[in-house]
C-alpha cells in the first residue's frame, strides 16, 4: 500500500498502538510530521586517527582487532575490553554493559567503533560498533522513554523510501532563490541523510527558515483576522484628552507622548487595535492606559482594565479615581472582583450593563459569563503574559469587539516580541520619568549580612521602609536557604524600634490585604516576604530591597523585585545577599548590579538562559521551535517575519500558483494554531 503524507504514522511497519502513542507525545501524528521531525545533532561516523583527535571528543576509529575481547563482570554490570590497531597506533577500547560485543568480533577483523576518546590513556570509551564502510553522519533525534532515537531514524528511512521527491514546497520559489534555500525534497534528504557536515548544515538552515516563515505567516493571518474582527473607530474628544494631559501633576516623557500618539491613532482607526505596551518597572504605563481609557469614554464607550491580582486591581482603581478627580474630570470608576459581596456585585453588573459605569477595574471576574457591558470600547490587560489568547478573546466577546491594549512590565527582547507577540503591534516606553533616581544595586556575601542590615537601619532611621525577600516559606533539607519565618523572627529581635510584618502565599487573603495596607500606610516599616511582592502595591516610601539567597531567583524576577523600590523621591537601594556556586549564578547577579535597564537585562537573560523561560514562568503562548533557535538565529527570524508580512500584504497572494502548497498547508493547520495558548 502506498503512503501519503497525511497518513497516520501507524501506516508504517512496526508502529502499533503503543509506539503510535509514544510518537504522538513527541508531536508526531502523521507521516509528514515524521519527515519534518529533524535530528538535533549528528554523530560523525567518518573514521579518524587518534593523533588527529582531541581529548574528550566523540569519534569513530577504524582498525584491526589486535587482542581478544575480554568480558569482565561486576554484578549486573560488565566491561568488554579489546585492543584496536589503527595504522601503527594501538588503543584500548572498552564497551560498558555490552557483553554481546565479544561474540561479534575476533582478532584480525576490521571494525569501526564510535565512542569518546581519552587522549591521556590512549583509550576509547565505546558507544557502539558501526559498519566499517560508514563514512557519513549519523542523525540523532529527540527521543523519549517510549521511543528511541534509533527507532525514529528507522521510521524516517522507511517513510522516505516510499515518499522521496513528493514533499510540496511551502516556501515560495522567489524566497528560496532570494535566500539560497533548498527545495523541500532536498532539504529533507540532506537534513536526515547528509553525506557530510555541509549537507547537514544546508538542510537544517532551510528547515529553520521554513519553520520561522510558517510561524510568521500564521501570526500575520491571525493579525489580519483580528483587524477584520469588526473593529470600530472611536471618535474621541481630542480637546478633552488634551485637557487631561495638561492637568496631570507631571509632564509626560517623550516616550510616553510617543506611545500615547500610537495608541490614540489605533483607537481612531476603523481597524481593530491589538497592541502590546512594554515598559520597564516605573516607566509610567498606567497613566498612558488612563489616557487611552478616557479617550474611549469621551467617544461614548466604556473601558475595562483587567489585572492579575485583587491587590493590583484595587491599586489601579484607587489611583485612576484619584487621577481623574485631581484633573477635575467626573468619571465613575468601579472595582469588580470576586471578593465583592453579592449585593454589591449585582448592582455593579446592572450599572455596567446600563452604561452607568465609565471604567471598570477587575481581575478574571471581568470575563465571567454574567458580565455584560453597555458598550465596551477598550480593554486594557495588565501584566500581559499572565493572560492567554483565549482570555483576551473572552473579554473581547463580552463587549462590542473592543480594542485591546495589553501591558507588561517584563521587558521583552526583540527575539521574544517577534515570537510570543508577533500578532500584536508593539509600543515601548524606553525612558523613566524625569527626576526618578536610579536604584543603587550591590551584592554581598552571606558573611556580609551585617553590612546589609546596617544600611537598612540607616534608611529606617531616615523614615524610610524596607522589603526583605526570601525564596522559601519553610526549611528545606535540600536547599541551603533562609527560612522566611526564621528571618522574620531574627529581624524582629534586631529591629526592636520598628514594626516587622511577615507576608507569604499561605496567608489568608484578608490577612494579606490588611498587612499590605499597613505597610503602605507606614504602620509596618519592614516587610519580610516571599515573592508575592513581585507584583504588588506601590509604596513610594520604601527605599530598600534586601533579597536573601538572590542566586535562587531568575534574573527577570530579581528585576521585578527591585522595581518595588525607587518609586518615590528617596534614593533607593537593592542589596543581593548570595554566595552563587555556578558561573551562571554569578553572571546573573553581576548583570543586575551592572545595569537597571530592564531591556538590557532581558537580552542578557536570554543569552544566559535561552528562550525557554525568559519570563520567570513558562510563557503562555510561547512557541517552541524544533529546528530554529530564535536567539542564535534572530536575523533569520526577523527576515522571515518581514517576508511573511510582505507576502500577506499582496491582495492576491493566496491565488498565486507558487503559493498554493503554502495556502493548503496553512488552511489545514491554522485552526489548531489559533488556540496555541
Automatic annotation (TrEMBL):
Pfam families: DEAD, Helicase_C, RecG_dom3_C, RecG_wedge
Molecular function (Gene Ontology), one example: DNA helicase activity
Catalytic reaction equation(s): Couples ATP hydrolysis with the unwinding of duplex DNA by translocating in the 3'-5' direction; ATP + H2O = ADP + phosphate + H(+)
EC number, UniProt record: 5.6.2.4
UniProt keyword annotations, A-Z: ATP-binding, DNA damage, DNA recombination, DNA repair, DNA-binding, Helicase, Hydrolase, Isomerase, Nucleotide-binding
Chain ranges of the Helicase C-terminal domain: 448-607
Enzyme kind, highest EC tier: isomerase
SMART domains named among the record's database cross-references: DEXDc (SM00487), HELICc (SM00490)
Family stated for the protein in its record: Belongs to the helicase family. RecG subfamily.
Its biological purpose: Plays a critical role in recombination and DNA repair. Helps process Holliday junction intermediates to mature products by catalyzing branch migration. Has replication fork regression activity, unwinds stalled or blocked replication forks to make a HJ that can be resolved. Has a DNA unwinding activity characteristic of a DNA helicase with 3'-5' polarity.
Cross-referenced PANTHER family: ATP-DEPENDENT DNA HELICASE HOMOLOG RECG, CHLOROPLASTIC
Protein name: ATP-dependent DNA helicase RecG
